[in-house]
Each structure stands twice: as C-alpha cells, then as structure tokens.
Write a structure and sequence with these properties.
InterPro entries: Ulvan_degrading_GH. The protein is α+β, with helices and mostly antiparallel strands. Helix content is 22%, strand content 30%.
Length: 1103
C-alpha cells in the first residue's frame, strides 16, 4: 500500500503534498436511494476536504437493493469517480453491522444462525427434543426456537460447586425437593437460536464459529464484489472492511446459589472439536464453566473452554476471510466488537489479539471519544510483530455535531502516536433523510458548515503518516497479555467480580503507566507467540532459536520485533510455550521482570515452573514507580517540565528509518481553560542526533539546534494544549549536518539559537504546531514581552451564512380525519401512529427500506403546528422532507405542491425548502397532510428566514431579526436554533506600521477563519487561539472573523437532558422520564468574549 516508502528518504514533495494512501478515508453512509449524482458530488466534496477516498458503507436507510445489479453498478461508478480523482475506493462487507449475515441473506438458512447454550431450571417451550428433530423441522420450513441438549444434577455448598453429574438421553422429568436435595438441582441445557430482528432484515446474526456459514457469507458478499470489481482489487480498491464480528457472549451467574437462566457461547459441533483438542467431553464438565470450584481451585476446563472458543471464532471467521482476501489481492481490514477490556473481549471475542493474526490491515474503532489505549495497543502490537503495513482506526464516531477541530486533532494525534496509520472518520452521511440524520452524528461531510476548512486536518495527518509509515517502530519492551488469566476467573459475580475488576484495573494501569511514563511497549499474545517466535533449537545448535542478537544485546524475537525486556504482569496462569521463551531470554542475558506475584498455574494447571523462573530473574511490586524505575535503561525518550517532573499527558512514537529516526510527540487529553499558557518542556532523546523539524501543519521543514549531553540529545520546547511535533533524527555528524542544512529550503547553514517554523500561511492553518529551539516558544522571544495594542469588545456588525431557523418539532395531530390529539414531539407522534397502524417503530432497529415492499401510502396524518410571532415578516422558506407529497396550508391558505426540481435545500439535499407566506403578528397555523405508509418519515420541520427567535421555556417566539450581535452565546441573542456560520465584522487602528497577530481567547465553534482588509489570513482552531496577520500599515483596518457553525442546535439531541449521556444514536433523541426535557437543551455557540490585537513580528511576541 505504501509503495512510496521504499524510497531511501521521505521526499519534501511527498511530505508537503501527501498522496491518497496517506489520507483519511471516511465511512460514507449509503443510507438512501443511491444515485450517480450523489456519488459524483459527494466524492468531489471528499476530495476538497482532503480525504484520500471513502469506505462505501451501507447503513440504516439504504433503499437500493443491497448487492443487487443497481447497487453494484453504483459501487463501480464510485470506484470510477475515485480513480478520476486519484483517490481510493474502500469496500465494506455488510448491510449495516455486525458483519457476517449479508443483510440477512446468510441466515435465511437456519443452520447458519447464531446460537448459544442456555442453562435453565425451567422447561422451555418451542424447543425440539434433539438436534436431529431440529434439523428436520428447519428443513420443513418451521421455525423452532432451538433444541434440547442435555441435563445436569448440580449440588453446591456455600455457593461453590460440590458435585455435578450429566444426565444423558431425553429430557428428564422434574422430581421432588427431597430428590433434588439428595441428588442435586436439575438444570436443563438447550441450544437456543438468536431471535429474528428487524436489524437483520427480519433474520438473525450469523454463527461466527461455523465455517460453512462464513463461506456462505464470502460467497454472497466478497465473491459478488470480486465478480464486478476484481480487476481493481489491490489497485484502486485496497481493502474490504469487516465490522464488529462477535461471539454471542458467555454470561456469568450472579452468585453460586442463583437459579437464574445463564447462557454460554456455543455452536453445534463445539463439543466434538473440544474433545478433539483436549480429549475431554465438554458437556460432561460444563458446570465448571459457570460455578467456582471449592478451596480456590482453578478449573482447567473453564480455561480451555475460553481458549477453544477464541480459536473457533478466529479460525472460522477471521482466518477464513483473511485467506480469501490474500488469495484475491485485497486486504482484510476492519475491527472486532468490544476490544478494550479483559471482560469485554472475553464476552464477545475470547481474545482480541488473536483476531488480528491473519488480518492484512488490523483495525480498531474508538467511539464517543473514549480513551481506549488498550484497543489500539493490542492491534498495533500484532501489526508490528507480523510486519503489517499499518493499522486502521474508525474514529470520531458518536461525538455529536459540536465536536470541534481540537477534538479531531487530539483524538487523531494520540492514535497516530500509538501506531494508527489509516484514519476512517465516522461518519459521512450520504443523506440526512428520515432516521439517517440520527445515525450517530455528526456528519463529516458537506452538511457540516466547516467542511471546506477540513483539509487543514487531513493535510496534517497525511503528512504525519508519510513519516510514521516508514521504517519500523523502535520498541524494546513487551508485556505478556493477561487475558488468559482473566478466563480462569470468569465465574459467578459474587465470588469473582472484585477479582476480575482488579485484573482489568491492573491491565488499564499498566498501559497508562507505561504510555504516559513515555516507555513504549507491545503486548505479547500467548496464543500467537509460538507462531511468531518458533523454537528452532534443532536448527540452532548454538542457541535456542528464539533469541535475536541485536546491537543492544539479546532480545526475544517475536516476528519482526525484538524485545530486550519482557514484563509478566501479575498473572494467574502462563503458557508453558511462553515460559520456554522467557527462560531462553533470561539465559541469554535479556530482562524478564515479574510484576507482583508469579503465576501459580502453567497452562491452567498447578505448576511452580513460573515461580522458579521468577526466583532467578527480577520480581518487583506491581506499582507505577517501581516499574518505571526498572525500565529506565529501556527508555529512549524523556520529557520533563521545568519543575523537573516527568510529563504525564504526552504520548510518543519513535521509528527507525534507515540510518535515521522519526520522533512524534503529542498531547492526549483535552485541556480546558488553558489556552494562553504554554508548557515549557525539556525533551531528551537517547543518542546524538541532528534534529530537523517537520511541521505537519504547514508542510515546512526547519533545522533545530540541540545540546548533546551524556549520550542524549536535548531540546526545549513550549507546547500549547493541542500541540504536537514531528522530528527527523539523523546521527550527528558536523559535516553531514551542514550539507543537509544547505539542502533544506529556507534554512541557511548557519543557525540562530532560536528556530521557529513559519506560520502555516499557505494552507491557512494559522500557526505552527509547536516551536523548537533551546529557549523559544510560539510567538515568544527570550526576555521580550509582546504588547496588546488593541482590544475589540464588541463587533461592528455580523452576517449569517444562512437564514435564521425556527425549529418546529411539536404538533397537534390526527390520523385519517379523526380527533385532534394533544401537542406532542413529532418523533413521538411517529411512534404513536406506527403503533396504531401496526408498523414497526423506526428508531435504531428497523428493517432496511430496500427489503420493504413498496405499498400505497393509504393513510393520512395531519399535523397542526402553532407559531407565535411578535412581528410580521416577508415570505419565508419551510424546510421539510419530501414536500412534493405533502399538502401544506399556511394560515388557512393552500400552498402549491412543488416539484422537487422547484425546491431548494437546507443543510442536506434531502431536506427541501418551499416558499410560504410570511408570519402575521400573533398566532400562526401550519397544517400539513402527510400520506403515511411503512416507509414514511415524520420529521421535524424548519422555518427559515429573516427574523429572530426568543426561547421561553418550552415555547419559542418569533421576533424581529437581530440587527446587532454582541460577543457571547448567540442562542440568547435571537439565534437559538441557528447552525450555520456567522461572520463578525470589526475594525482596529494602528498608529504605525507593525507586525501583529490576532487573538480570540474564548470561542465555541469548530474553527474560526480570519480575514483582514478583505483577504483571508488563515484559521484559528487550536491554542493559543492566535494568528499572525503579518505586517500591517498604519491606519484603520477591517477585520472579519467567521465562526464556522455546527448543527447541534438544529439537529442535535435537544430534549435529552442527561449531561452524562454519550451514546448519541437514534434512541438518544427519544429519551423518556428524567432524561427527557420538554424545554430545549441548547449548547452555546459563537465568539464568547473580546478579540485582541497584539504587536509582535511573525516569530516573536507574547500571548
């Protein structure tokens, strides 16, 4: 994929203008009736936004038959459009998600449907008496719920398993309490199929442990794409994305005496393959999977069950698809479900790292802005070890409409530092019609007013990628992943939950201690290790074959990576194959460090072998200080504050690229109320290097001076809240350094002590990402203070990019001419009507439109919307969906039903605008007669025009259009529902010619664009909220600042009053009870305080 990385050095042309493979590729939500015009126009939008392509992702609302002739012709057209623009077309393997059912086509075969084992105290109805009966019933077209499997007598004592016995044969009869007391409680085991769901188009999810089912999935999906587009596989089509495949998880009992139903992950032939693997009848030992053994004894069968589940899932699903992709010259990418914690992956995957073993481009997803460092660290570890070209991340999802450029940069930065190379922004709506607008917004496309400014983000990350995809990561420390120890503890909550929580806490803490302590590391998967680090003792008579000699000493060879130090983090069990390799590393002089207790189990069985090894190597407390102190010799990078303490909010990545290295350092967490103050940091890098600054925001390069001391290269930097830096490190040689400096544009062979990159004027990002040198920071010079020369407290005026908005989200209603019903939220009205007509609700899970047969819209819903106005207005525009089908009456006057081509649009081309008469003083009435069928969407409407809006509790009042706008929240100044951009006009005066910069200390907007004297000066997005305006002549100057809008106050969760809510999907718009507010929950927007003009040249000044 990254063929340009074969060049000996990164060219300046590629760094400044990265090609498509280095750029982000958003999820492109195909959520409507797809057309060529939509594809062409939106591909053009993506190109202007700086993206390198898009993932063609069928999602909720798709009204073109999935994988049908028209669909495939449109996919081909999308690929053609991508090729014309030098972009890439990425495929997606499912209708919605999770992957595997092919929109329900796979699971029309009942043998391929997801299932689990149900252990219950009650006889279940609808079940067949055996698997044989079940297969016959399914063949007859019947829909049995599952089948009876076996039964057990189970005795417990104080919640622990005392005895158990399998009862084979037919379903036994219940007996008396005396018999239960004597022989144990009777538990029945059924295999239960997943119930049909509209989410799977009235089918079910697939049995991911059934290889035949997966082959059927490949036949329907992948072979279909190959038939039409196979010639482009590996060319314009680099990969196909698989999304959230998962096991239907094993649950735990609340406690050992519980009689609640409980489920276990299962597939029909699991007992047979388990017995083949371990020589044990799984059904004969099944109670040990759920109950704890007495006296603290660990169950070997529980350990082996979870290991076998993980292997069955990966071999049937992941390996099968990856092998097909390998044979067809296309990469398998995408992410799995529930990767971050030991609990979540035990429940849904078995083991996350095993899933990536054959995936050509391992992937992850980071939703809600969650800091899932574990998720990325696991995937990147396998990618590094297996020599994969990169790692994909589906990011920015579920961050809502008001997620700003700071968030985009910070979230992308820390993921890049951990090893993500392919950003897949979630989500770009093809349409906002109907439910699609609530599909985990925001839309990272033309619907967001800032879309034309987004290239600054994409150019930045593409430039970072040109460096961070070269060479290989320099990592010398590894940690054995603790997932297998967690399996052993996966028992009843009352007995194991606290222990399991501690294990997950330890897992999280170790990751954060190392990453924030600036010690990069990889995880070692015990299941993958034998394949990555084969024991070739017979081939290597002078060594074990698992050790690699490096210039820094003996290292454990794990695929492409070499680790001098391996941490064993407080495990309960460890594999004998892992121990063999750790023993070899210790014997060769490498570092093996046990953290906390050494495991008492080997391969799930009592064995003191691990403790014997711990006795002859280092064992330290499982504590942050102890661990970081022990790893000081492994440290390559150290960053400290002026106070001497180590930074605790930065991540880094160090890569070896030929004879040089790349160092990328970035902030991780968002800092609030910390805009103006930089943090001065001392950076030390092990070794002696000539440092070149690669400014990824501007595309410029600058040499930086450094001090070489005690084997370290030392620099001082001032970093603001969203800053990052990318440095090229070349081994220090005076003559070579002088020659290289002469070849860098704009850099003389002789350097001052303070080196500051130019402001990013060509791309209008506004200011350098960080400043490098011994003493200097952005717009700061040693010993010199800048001066604020002008303070603008109020703007002279303002302009709006769009008409003002009155949100119409409440109405009275009636069905088919019946009685008027009380005023209600329109989405709730939609629910009421669907209930009355027997249609399924829309919300999150409803059958895709392409699977719904077209039927006449024979019912009629009438909506009555009342609007109160203090003023008369001129004619206005009404924005609504499918106006050509709706009869509109405005204050008793019928409005003509326009043809679609006669209408405009608002925010999204599927939300059309029609002209309506003006408002009169007092009450106004809007009546809409809407033909209604199963595919009809009742949605909010928007009145657009020149007016103001005052929100009074649950009421809104139309007022005169605001003629002035103060700095402050616009929602309180007549624009509560406005989501477009606003440009503030102002002026300032200079008494003489000066170099100046503008500062906007406080604003709530995704990004600002600044214009001086009618010319664009650049963008303000990141701290310290400043932008150089260059040298300005004496006299009066105009200044305009555009606050690029967001759509929250028009399309957000305006009635969801739960401030802790974070899963902003369809259901978040339909909260109830204490999470619902009749009043609108608006969010502030605009420039919130003064604008300042500061004196200082382009390089020097002070904030």
């Amino acid at each position: 994929m990254y063929t340009k990385n074969s060049e000996p050095q990164l060219s300046m042309e590629l760094f400044r203008n990265p090609t498509s493979e280095y750029r982000g590729t958003p999820f492109w939500s195909w959520n409507c009736k797809v057309t060529r015009e939509l594809i062409r126009s939106q591909m053009e939008v993506f190109q202007k936004m700086g993206f390198g392509g898009a993932h063609l992702h069928p999602r909720t609302g798709l009204d073109t038959e999935y994988l049908g002739e028209e669909f495939m012709e449109l996919v081909s057209y999308a690929d053609e459009q991508a090729k014309e623009r030098g972009m890439l077309c990425w495929l997606y393997d499912e209708d919605r998600y999770p992957s595997g059912a092919a929109g329900g086509m796979v699971t029309e075969n009942w043998n391929y449907r997801a299932r689990h084992l149900l252990l219950t105290r009650e006889k279940k109805t609808g079940m067949c008496g055996s698997r044989e009966e079940f297969l016959k019933a399914a063949a007859r077209g019947e829909k049995p719920a599952g089948y009876y499997l076996t039964a057990y007598r189970i005795q417990t004592e104080n919640g622990f398993l005392k005895s158990y016995r399998q009862i084979e044969g037919s379903l036994p009869e219940y007996d008396s309490r005396e018999e239960e007391y004597r022989e144990g409680k009777l538990w029945l085991a059924y295999v239960e199929l997943m119930q049909e769901s509209p989410w799977y188009n009235d089918q079910t999810y697939v049995d991911v442990m059934n290889r035949e089912a997966v082959l059927r999935f490949l036949e329907i999906t992948h072979e279909r794409y190959y038939e039409v587009l196979g010639e482009e596989f590996g060319r314009s089509i680099p990969a196909i994305f698989t999304d959230e495949p998962q096991i239907k998880g094993s649950m735990v009992l609340p406690d050992g005496e519980s009689e609640y139903d409980v489920t276990l992950s299962f597939t029909d032939d699991l007992p047979a393959t388990y017995e083949k693997a371990y020589g044990v009848n799984l059904l004969g030992v099944l109670p040990e999977l759920l109950w704890e053994l007495p006296d603290g004894k660990a169950s070997l069968h529980r350990y082996q069950y979870h290991d076998h589940l993980a292997e069955r899932f990966v071999s049937a699903y992941s390996d099968t698809i990856a092998a097909w992709c390998e044979a067809h010259h296309i990469a398998m990418t995408g992410h799995y479900m529930s990767e971050p914690t030991l609990y979540s992956q035990t429940l849904r995957l078995g083991e996350a790292m095993r899933c990536y073993r054959n995936q050509q481009l391992p992937g992850v997803d980071i939703l809600c802005g969650d800091p899932e460092y574990s998720t990325i660290k696991q995937a990147v570890s396998v990618a590094r070890q297996n020599g994969r070209e990169g790692v994909l991340s589906e990011l920015y999802g579920v961050t809502h409409w008001d997620f700003d450029f700071k968030g985009h940069k910070l979230q992308g930065d820390w993921q890049a530092a951990l090893g993500v190379t392919i950003r897949c922004p979630h989500l770009a709506f093809m349409s906002m019609e109907g439910e699609a607008k609530r599909d985990w917004p925001a839309s990272i496309s033309y619907q967001s007013p800032w879309w034309e400014k987004y290239a600054c983000i994409e150019n930045y990350f593409a430039r970072v990628n040109t460096a961070l995809t070269r060479g290989c990561a320099r990592v010398s420390t590894a940690a054995v992943h603790p997932i297998e120890s967690y399996w052993i503890s996966y028992g009843p909550a009352a007995q194991t939950k606290e222990l399991r929580d501690q294990m997950d806490d330890n897992f999280r803490d170790l990751i954060q201690w190392l990453l924030f302590g600036l010690v990069d590391f990889d995880f070692i998967s015990e299941s993958l290790l034998p394949g990555q680090c084969p024991d070739r003792t017979k081939e290597c008579p002078n060594g074990t074959g698992v050790i690699r000699e490096t210039p820094d000493g003996a290292a454990l060879a794990v695929g492409n990576m070499s680790y001098h130090t391996v941490l064993v983090p407080d495990l309960r069990t460890i594999r004998s194959t892992t121990l063999s390799r750790l023993e070899a590393l210790a014997d060769a002089g490498g570092n093996v460090i046990f953290l906390g207790e050494a495991p008492a189990l080997v391969d799930g069985k009592p064995d003191d072998r691990a403790r014997r090894l711990a006795g002859r190597v280092k064992r330290i407390p499982f504590q942050k200080y102890a661990i970081l102190q022990e790893l000081e010799e492994e440290r390559d990078v150290d960053i400290r504050r002026e106070t001497g303490e180590r930074s605790d909010h930065l991540f880094y990545q160090l890569r070896q690229d030929g004879n040089g290295k790349w160092l990328f350092v970035c902030h991780v967490n968002r800092k609030r109320n910390n805009v103006s103050r930089p943090e001065r940091l001392s950076v030390r890098i092990r070794g002696a290097y000539q440092v070149t600054v690669y400014d990824a925001l501007s595309g410029n390069c600058t040499a930086a001076e450094s001090v070489k001391k005690d084997g370290w290269t030392c620099l001082t930097v001032d970093l603001y809240a969203e800053d990052s830096f990318l440095w090229r490190l070349d081994e220090h040689n005076a003559q070579q350094a002088a020659d290289e400096e002469a070849q860098i544009p704009g850099v003389s062979g002789k350097q001052e002590k303070t080196i500051i990159p130019e402001a990013a004027r060509p791309l209008r990002e506004g200011r350098p990402a960080a400043v490098y040198g011994l003493v200097a920071g952005p717009f700061r010079s040693a010993g010199k203070k800048g001066t604020m020369v002008y303070c603008i407290e109020e703007p002279d005026g303002f302009t709006m990019a769009e008409p003002n908005v009155l949100l119409l989200d409440r109405a009275q209603w009636k069905l088919n001419g019946g009685e008027w019903q009380a005023e209600e939220d329109i989405l709730r009205i939609d629910n009421h009507i669907r209930a009355l007509l027997g249609y399924p609700r829309r919300q999150d899970a409803f059958i895709q439109p392409w699977r719904v047969r077209e039927t006449p819209e024979k019912d009629v819903v009438t909506l009555c919307i009342k609007m109160e106005s203090r003023v008369e207005t001129g004619s206005l525009m009404l924005a609504l969906e499918r106006p050509e089908k709706i009869r509109i009456r405005w204050n008793g006057i019928s409005c003509p039903m326009p043809k679609r081509e006669e209408t405009g649009w608002f925010t999204d081309t599927f939300i059309r605008t029609v002209s309506v008469p003006g408002l009169k003083k007092g009450e106004n009435e809007l009546l809409l007669e809407v033909p209604f069928g199963q595919k009809t969407n009742l949605e909010n409407l928007f009145l657009l025009g020149e007016f103001g809006v005052c929100v009074l509790g649950t009421k809104s009042l139309v007022t005169a259009a605001p003629t002035e706008l103060a700095f402050g929240d616009i929602t309180r100044q007549g624009l509560p529902f406005y989501g477009g951009s606003i440009t503030y006009s102002m002026h300032f005066e200079m008494d003489r010619e000066k170099d100046i910069l503008v500062k906007v200390p406080h604003f709530t907007a995704p990004v600002l664009e600044v214009w001086i004297d009618g010319k664009s000066a650049g963008l303000i997005a990141f701290a310290p909220h400043t932008l150089s305006l260059g040298r300005v002549a004496a006299g009066r100057h105009s200044l305009e600042i555009c606050a690029c809008g967001n759509r929250f106050n028009s399309f957000g969760t305006l009635h969801n009053c739960n401030e802790e809510f974070k899963w902003y999907g369809p259901d978040s718009y339909r909260t109830v009870g204490d999470e619902w507010s009749e009043a609108w929950c608006l969010r502030p927007f605009g420039i919130l305080s003064r604008v300042e003009i500061w004196e200082g040249d382009r390089e020097h000044g002070d904030k």
